[in-house]
UniProtKB/TrEMBL annotation, chains A, B:
SMART domains: CBS, MgtE_N. It is a multi-pass membrane protein. Residues 219-275 form the CBS domain. The keyword Glycosyltransferase does not apply. Keywords: CBS domain, Cell membrane, Magnesium, Membrane, Metal-binding, Transmembrane, Transmembrane helix, Transport. InterPro entries: CBS_dom (IPR000644), CBS_dom_sf (IPR046342), Mg_transptr_MgtE_intracell_dom (IPR006668), MgtE_N_sf (IPR038076), MgtE_transporter (IPR006669), SLC41_membr_dom (IPR006667), SLC41_membr_dom_sf (IPR036739). Belongs to the SLC41A transporter family. The gene is mgtE. It is found in: Cell membrane; Membrane. The chain crosses the membrane at residues 302-322, 328-353, 374-394, 400-423, 435-462. This is Magnesium transporter MgtE. Pfam families: CBS, MgtE, MgtE_N. Its main location: membrane. Homodimer.
Amino acid sequence: MATGPEAGMDDGAFRTAEGRISLLWLERLRAYLEAGRDEDVALVMEPLHSADIGDVLEQLEPAERIALVVMLGDRFDYSALTEVDESIRLEIMEALPNADIARGVAELSNDDAVFLLEDLEPEDQHEILSALPTFERLKLKRSLDFPEDSAGRRMQTDFIAIPPFWTVGQTIDYLRAEQDLPEEFYQIYVVDAGYTVLGTLPLDKFLRTPRSVKIDTIMNTTFVLVKAEEDQEEAARSFERYDLVEVGVVDESGRLVGVLTIDDIVDVIQEEAEEDIRLMAGVGDEDVSDTTVDTVKSRAPWLAVNLVTAVLVSYVIGLFNATIEQMVALAVLMPIVASMGGNAGAQTMTVTVRALATREIEGGRVRRLIRREMVVGIFNGAIFAILIGLITWLRFTNAGLGVVIGLAMIINMIVAGTFGILIPLTLDKLKADPAIASAVFVTTVTDVVGFFAFLGIAGLWFGLF
Amino acid sequence: MATGPEAGMDDGAFRTAEGRISLLWLERLRAYLEAGRDEDVALVMEPLHSADIGDVLEQLEPAERIALVVMLGDRFDYSALTEVDESIRLEIMEALPNADIARGVAELSNDDAVFLLEDLEPEDQHEILSALPTFERLKLKRSLDFPEDSAGRRMQTDFIAIPPFWTVGQTIDYLRAEQDLPEEFYQIYVVDAGYTVLGTLPLDKFLRTPRSVKIDTIMNTTFVLVKAEEDQEEAARSFERYDLVEVGVVDESGRLVGVLTIDDIVDVIQEEAEEDIRLMAGVGDEDVSDTTVDTVKSRAPWLAVNLVTAVLVSYVIGLFNATIEQMVALAVLMPIVASMGGNAGAQTMTVTVRALATREIEGGRVRRLIRREMVVGIFNGAIFAILIGLITWLRFTNAGLGVVIGLAMIINMIVAGTFGILIPLTLDKLKADPAIASAVFVTTVTDVVGFFAFLGIAGLWFGLF
């Protein structure tokens, strides 16, 4: 029940009951855009939250997106661009004059401004920065100097820092008098003259403590800080682990230089899980709004890797050419063993990759986990060996063939469990991302072992070599 | 750089530089546990944050976990149990007397208490609730009456509500005088006599506004609320969309009954992405700490489904028995076409499933996306058709075989793209979770089409029927 964004819209709600953007609403906007009725466009867009404006942009055709931004002019809230897919953001920003972007960026908080600028071409970035007031420009430049995906890139450089000898009353008076406060803040930092953090204070502490109390008697002296060069995923883990809402960011010398807030971190957490899903499926850093060419480019490398392993696997089958020729039922049955192994391997691998990503596998648990996966492989192998053995016996009225496929199944399931856990663990030890290549390695192993075990055992059993 | 949890530990840090629990630290704890030195155990555990206590519990053997909780006695912080895997939580809680649990639960905030109680057996739940003070018991019972995974289950029932005619000064005086405030809060709710929300006020507003200002002149009148019966995933989407830190929860009559805070929602967001990964890989609601038997139980159903489809696919191959018998190279090559189709289908499916989960596919974008996936299928199909065609030609010195496998590849890649997007979309339309069954359907389609197209075209081309 979002009461906010609907307020002020009497002629047709913006979102349907299921939370999707109303097609009726969208049609009306499109009509206004086509007719060039910019006052009407501004009127329907005005009540929307920047996240909703982002959703609207994603729904429109490319030409309509530009038209919308141009018609809104100075009324367009550039923070909406932080809410759309990267490809749409770049498309819109490339279509607009840099002077307009500079005007829009000047209105944004430091972290949103960095988010918009970081992916632009160096020349455009330079031109926009030059058009900004000196103080803003220097702050943005400092953030942009930190590595991509670091805490320093994501941080907000406005924060409230007070000395430890102030009282609660003094602090409140200062906040009431000060005009240039951050838009929103959740805690106040107690620092020494060199901006080293001595303590933190959540806002509710100020509201429950008498005015005369000294700050250093109520501040939290155990607190979490993150380094500006630290990866944003590391910072996200601190937020998750300690249920934080805001954290201070310090430079190499321990000086407080900014803060990270939970809303930025929620996006990081989401992206991180997303990344694992994509890497495991062999999809790159891809959006639904990417062009066809970009999509082909992002997927072809993974398909190429798969082609190489598939050809390799087919060479393994080729070794048993003569065996298959004598008993064509083997060709009919062989994909079953490989497919079951691939599936079981994917299960183990997924659990392992996620456990590594969330740091759930440490120390003594590893050995316990490997043992469990092997035992699971033996159990499931036995269950499905019996099933497929019976099915095969009935279908081909050949008990021997049933025994052969059953044996191959047990072997492949144990191999699947073992490699499903060892491959991601090894990649992690080698400092590679276990999500990225595990799937390819695991299915290659289960395919090779599946075909080799089945055709090999069959050859021995029926004397076909 | 976590300064907090290390504080007070002079004899060996708790975490290593990489953020893992120090094995040395763990060994010492184990030694204390075995020797029954409960004062030493309490001493090393005392400085730890509840999240760290949770991590320690996960690293220990089952018997050690119980020993740790028993030795700590009343010093054990039960909120640590909200940080461990479900199976470990249940194992510990089943081993402890209900009276101890009741004493521990009484110390917790309402949302943490519900989290611990909700998965217990009804009798245990009842016994623990009965041991609590009436007021606490009623509050917990009301939360437990809301459906599983609803906002009402996750909410915190302590919040601060004030009337609109108060001033900023009156509110601050009230907060300073009131003893029974929630542990942490980020906004204050302005309500009428019937607890209908009239507005919200973030805490920083109180700190920047003079004491004499009336509340109703500064409160936010556009705000987001969630219904208690609403699914927690819906609530999480509101948090993400509007960058919220806290949101009010209302019952059917619009009465404010609790609040949801971002720290609970971060877990929901994490779980939701996690769930998609697991469902796509055919792994149920499984933890790394599950027993072997539970793991077998969770995975076998998916393997059974895979067995059925694999047998189905093998019947399709069986149709071409005679064809393969005449040209055994077909058996050697056929897994390549199926494997490439399966991979391409998984790519499209993954992008679609995640876009559906994050509500990125709406209205006009669907048609555009289907068109894109088909075109991507044609492009990648053409690229890999040429590649595999050449490889096959060189390997078997048979140009016709190269053409056949190339044609089959193009067909299967287009089919993979089309079904990779249509299957999850259809499941979503039918109100099923697109993550759960898409993978099985998509690979069945690409296997069937892959084998059928390749063997069928080969049969026609070489006149083998």
